[in-house]
Amino acid sequence: MAASGKLSTSRLPPLPTIREIIKLFRLQAAKQLSQNFLLDLRLTDKIVRKAGNLTNAYVYEVGPGPGGITRSILNADVTELLVVEKDTRFIPGLQMLSDAAPGKLRIVHGDVLTFKVEKAFSESLKRPWEDDPPNVHIIGNLPFSVSTPLIIKWLENISCRDGPFVYGRTQMTLTFQKEVAERLAANTGSKQRSRLSVMAQYLCNVRHIFTIPGQAFVPKPEVDVGVVHFTPLVQPKIEQPFKLVEKVVQNVFQFRRKYCHRGLGEELKRRKNKNEEKEEDDAENYRL
């Protein structure tokens, strides 16, 4: 579980507010990219506190946008903050933050879905999987359009211990639509229990730590936003390959709850038929 960290007294020098940055660089949220800006630094500070104690930490922030959470992370006295931003419009504002925190903020123009974060930090930060989590964190206010595919990608990385998890059990603090956040953290028997619940919880300790009202964002989304914290488990709850677990779970949840056994039955039947066909082929090859 994440410790409750305190923001450092070593803070950034006076800077324009995020709202002023948006006006200065004439930034507008791109609807096609599901962008929503979080301008209230009290909320961005809260997200950072819930990530744990970031003093001297190495942080990978995804989708920094105009830099609200970025400021809060830098104010937490991290050793290094790496931000990956796809939208070039935000780079000048982020560069202003970099100039205010010399040597601490590294800006990469790229796509979080393809960026190789396993090569971003020093090898010396790596810790054995069985140890406590490394001093590496992932934090992000994710655009709704990429949040689900990105967390599925990272869950697969956890199962393989690659990507951001080459450093060990890297913790993540991320935003999702409230409904998605509730599904990720839903307990067994909950009406919110879903494919995402199983996929996340068989690999991680998942906590929906708080909810941010939609009106806190600009532009205001139609839904509230949930902040979710993930800590990879030392031992997964299901000892099977990720793709197999994913396929079985997809089949289970493709039917309504009371009929979900049908999905599991169909997947088991399919796998049985496949095994029988393989056995027949092997027998035929042996006779030849």
Task: Give me some keywords for this one.
288 residues; alpha/beta; seven-stranded mixed sheet; two-stranded antiparallel ribbon; 9 helices; globular; disordered N terminus
Question: How would you portray this structure in words?
Answer:
With 288 residues, this protein is an alpha/beta fold. The chain is built from nine helices and nine strands. Strands 4-3-2-5-6-9-7 form a seven-stranded mixed beta sheet, sandwiched between helices. Strands 1-8 form a two-stranded antiparallel sheet. Helix 2 (41-51) crosses helix 3 (68-74) and helix 6 crosses helix 7. The protein is globular.
Strand content: 15-25%
Largest sheet: 7 strands, mixed
- Please write the string of helix (H) and strand (E) elements: HEHEHEHEEHEHHEEEHH
Helix content: 25-40%
The largest sheet has its strands arranged as 4-3-2-5-6-9-7
Which class of secondary structure composition applies to the elements? Answer: alpha/beta
Straight-line N-to-C gap: 59 Å
Uncertain spans, ≥5 residues at pLDDT below 50? 1-9
Q: Can you count the beta strands?
A: 9
Cα Rg: 21 Å
- Mean pLDDT, to the nearest integer, reads 87
Total count of helical runs of at least 4 residues:
9
The geometry reads as globular
